[in-house]
Specification:
By secondary structure, the chain is an alpha+beta fold. The chain is globular.
Amino acid sequence: MTQPHHRPDPPERMCPSTPAANATVFLGMITPAGRVAYVTPQLPAEVALATVAGSPEPVESRYRLAGPCVTSSCGFWTGDHCGLGARVAESYREVTGSTEAELPRCAIRRSCRWYAEQGAAACVACSHVVTDAR
């Protein structure tokens, strides 16, 4: 009798635009131009969260954070994919007419839900996303 072949489970999918309450990874800082300046290698979210404790501004207005994708617990979940990642990628394609671009140095790309589902267009457009923490 042969043993069944077990494939390793895919890595836990990460949301590249999660609220601070669910964050596990500090992705980068929001620049004055409203773009993300990514931090590599990956840093724990606590690094960013500790620097803004007690600030009246939402941490998400200054930092981009990532955390485990919560699928059906998220308002952007469509039932089988992330609707926000799809919208971000589609907007990028509409504005640029292309999906070809140099990808930013991102610490979560291998496990990122947007990249896994939408590819390079979502990855490139991601640097323009600022999480709405209201």
